[in-house]
Structure formats: C-alpha cells, structure tokens
Amino acid sequence: MMVGVWIDATGDNPQERYGERLRAWSHAFAAADTEPQAGGITLDPVHYAMTAWDLATRPTDGPPYVRFHPRVLHAACHRPEGTYIVLAMVKLAAPSPERIPDGWFGWQQGESGVPCVAPPFDRRAALFTLELRIPIQAGRLPTPTRPEAEGLPNLGDAQAALETLVEEINAAVVPFLRILDATS
Fold first, then answer.
1. pTM, to two decimals
2. For residue 108, what are the β-bridge partners?
3. How far apart are CA 116 and CA 109, in angstroms?
4. SS3 154
C-alpha cells in the first residue's frame, strides 16, 4: 500500500524516543492565554496537533518519528492567522511539464528505485515541485486529555494527533503520488 507519510515504528524504541522529545520540548505545548489548558499544557486540538507534528518531523540526532515518501520533499503544518484549522503544506517532486533545455538536469532516478533524487550541486538543475495545501478542520483532530504529569504532554494524545494528521495528509497526497509515479 502506498503512503506519503507514516509514523516510523521500526528501529530502537521509536515511540520512547518520541516521548523523550515531548518531555524535552514540553514548553512548546504550553497553553496560550486564550486556550483551554490543564496542568500548564494546552488542550487546544489545533495547537496540540501542530506541536506534535513539529516534534515528530524536526531534525534530531536520530531518525525522525514521521517519515516521508521519497517524492515528499517537505511537509509542515501551520495555523493560518484568523482560522481554526491546521493547514498541511506538502511539496512533492514533480516531473518537468516541458522539456528542459540542454545542459540542465531534472529529478533523477536514484538507487534502489527511489523515484526522485536531485542532481549533484555542481550541475545546473531545474527542479519542479507540486505544492499541496490541505486544510484539516479542528473537528477532525482528537481533543487532548488532562496531562498525567503536571507540565508534560501525554504521549498517547500526541500519538493520536499524529495518526490523524498522517491519515488526513495521506488521503490527499497518495492520489498525486500514484499519478507522479506512473508518469516517471
């Protein structure tokens, strides 16, 4: 089954590593003045989900907790000002819509069938991308529960938020990945 993003359950205790990241960055879950909160932690589903996503995709010394299909160059979640939604923005590597001039390189087939690898930096490249904007309504997100420990977000709540975001993003991204992979 094709997926665009997934929670990495492989390796040495990935969920435990993610839980450590949540504890280290618990201040990112602090409630804003206007948000519902318990134990100093936001109970706002949008704030909670965006923070859980950010910590799961942030570069660290280990592998990220949320992984991407090779065509997914970047995926981020934002809250547009004046809205109560999560806006997932996903950039996909896409083939050139037109023939590119001689001397320029586009996306290349990588090792082990990886569909999109950028040419080396010492070559001129014209790399086309497709940006998807996926609005996710707050009502689709799970509501966080009261923290089990004062000032610390619950791993189960963060996991539930990530699972919802991954599901919503994949529902939008996978049809594009199928088309792009078929045209490569």
1. 0.92
2. 117
3. 6
4. coil
Structure tokens at 143: 């509501």
CA distance 128 to 12: 36
**Which residues are 160's β-sheet partners?**
none
pLDDT tens digits, one per residue of 10-46: 777 888 889 999 999 999 999 988 888 888 999 999 9
Tokens 């992979």 belong to 181
Supply the DSSP symbol for 142: P
The angle subtended at Cα 15 by Cα 163 and Cα 60, nearest 5°, is 100
If DSSP codes are grouped into helix, strand and coil, which group holds residue 109? Answer: coil
Counting Cα atoms < 13 Å in the Cβ hemisphere of 54 gives 16
Q: Are 144 and 41 in contact (CB under 8 A)?
A: yes
Alpha-carbon gap, residue 155 to 87, rounded angstroms: 23
Backbone angles phi, psi at 171, to 5 degrees: -60, -35
Q: Comparing C-alpha atoms, which of 133, 138, 139, 143 is closest to residue 169?
A: 133
- How do residues 75-101 score in pLDDT, each as one tens digit? 999 999 999 999 999 999 998 888 999
Q: Tokens 């569909």 correspond to what residue? A: 115
